[in-house]
Amino acid sequence: MFQARRYQHCSTCGGQIEYRIPADDNRERATCTVCGAIHYENPLNVVGTLPIYGEQVLLCKRAIEPRLGKWTLPAGFMELGETIAEGAKRETDEEAGAQIELQELYCVMNVVRVGQVHLFHRARLLSPVFDPGPETLEAKLFHEHEVPWDELAFHTVRETLQRFFEDRRGGNGYPLHVADIA
Amino acid sequence: MFQARRYQHCSTCGGQIEYRIPADDNRERATCTVCGAIHYENPLNVVGTLPIYGEQVLLCKRAIEPRLGKWTLPAGFMELGETIAEGAKRETDEEAGAQIELQELYCVMNVVRVGQVHLFHRARLLSPVFDPGPETLEAKLFHEHEVPWDELAFHTVRETLQRFFEDRRGGNGYPLHVADIA
Ligand SMILES: [Zn+2]
Ligand SMILES: [Zn+2]
């Protein structure tokens, strides 16, 4: 679940929080009972890549929770100070140590249940040699028939891979996919 | 500027915050000196629409800061519990009281300076009658030559409008635009 109602104290003054609907609003917000500050909670972006080397796709075996031991595309929370593309490239470097040429934005997936939007760029791997970081047990290339579909970490990874293989078979390029993921 | 370093107190326990680099991280994070909780600060999504009625585009004159009195496309912060499309539609309803049929995602614009991503869907207006909410002084349709270019509220609004009029003149449809805005 997304982290709504995660405020107990005001991040400005430390005062007690109550969830109230402000006068000019229609939702309950974390409101400080001492200084009156309102703290908003909003969806976060997870940014990553779909790195391709010839016929193969790069997946990373997670070394951390959630989904420890499951396979994922390199991705993580977008940081302040970067674009979606820069974040996607950074995560690919941090998780796989992979050298890539970033391509177009390929998937924008709403994951309402967890308050996230997952955005994946396609990427061309410049080398099949990887240097996984501490969040990754193993970084490995897979042909389509080798993908561990039952061992994928996240729904958005499965959906992104499925769309990519479909588009590749279709032979008409890689249009943007916008989807809502349960 | 984006709201980095906005934590002075822990939102869990109210304890004093220090900005430190956690052991498994490479950036300073708001870290509680009492309970050890780490509070992350990430970019936020602003979602909205480019509502079209025949040859005209809908703009809203802002009744609130920032940019009070300037013209904008209907847009606002994406909320927990909704998709990008749902948020874009909600903002169009709240700010303009406009009835729309939502169309494709059209612009994804990184505004790194303020820690935001602005996402606009194209939309077809079902009626030229509006019912602006309290955040809007006036909702009005503009032909291209009438757009108040010097009175627009945000760079992303200008960029979205420019791309739309260009694409319309080009006659080859409305592909996704991904851009970085200074
Ligand atoms: Zn307070
Ligand atoms: Zn604490």
TrEMBL record, chains A, B:
Which cofactors is this protein said to need?
Mg(2+)
**Record key words, sorted:** Hydrolase
Q: Which Pfam families does the annotation name?
A: NUDIX (PF00293), Zn_ribbon_Nudix (PF14803)
* Domain Nudix hydrolase residue range list: 42-165
Check the record and name the PROSITE patterns matching this protein.
NUDIX (PS51462), NUDIX_BOX (PS00893)
Question: Does the record's keyword annotation contain Oxidoreductase?
Answer: no
Output one GO MF annotation.
hydrolase activity
Highest taxon listed in the record's lineage: Bacteria
* Matching SUPFAM superfamilies: Nudix
- Which named protein is this? NUDIX hydrolase
